[in-house]
Amino acid sequence: MAAGEAGVEQEINRRLEVMPTGDPDDETCATFVLHEEDHTLGNSLRYIIMKNNYRIPCCLQAHTNKKSFPNKIYKIILCLSLHCSPDVVFCGYSVPHPSENKINLRIQTNGPPAVDVLRRGLSELTALCEHMLATFETAVEEHKDSKQNGDFEMSTTED
User: Where do the DNA-directed RNA polymerase RBP11-like dimerisation domain residues begin and end (predicted)?
Assistant: First the structure.
């Protein structure tokens, strides 16, 4: 392992702690302590993990492309998918005390290890943030370009 990689791993270990549970062999339940974090990450991560709580049945996965179905059928397929067995049973967070700059994140699953669910949630949240940043930067550039070109569009709202 290179010196840079060791430094990154030490930083991660300092900021993320896994609390011991009653059964050390049970990987489906875990409480993670995220140091130097607050409600911003806690609520966003909880939302992302619970958003993907339900899986679409294998028989419907090939047909969930919105372009291949009329809107009503697509909505029915998505509705049916919500009644499948969830991977994540519970995901919640708490701030132990307002003066402590950390959050406790609890994940309970029906099979996959809680660490994998956390890893997937962090990856999806990172991708979402990168997309939002790129979209914002594009909009700012378009706005600057339109200002320079004198393309002012006044929007009127009718109340």
Answer: 29-53, 81-133
Q: Quick one: tokens of 60?
A: 């419907």
How far is residue 122 CA from its own chain's centroid? 6
The two three-digit tokens of residue 97, written as one number: 């005390």
**Cβ atoms within 10 Å, residue 107:** 27
**DSSP-derived 3-state class of residue 51:** helix
pLDDT at 56 over 60: no
Token pair in block for residue 26: 């049970």
User: pTM for this structure?
Assistant: 0.68
Residues 6+ apart with CB under 8 A from 82: 54
Q: State the angle between helix axes of 114-148 and 39-51 in degrees (0 to 180), rounded to the nearest 10.
A: 110
- Mean pLDDT across the stretch 97-123? 94
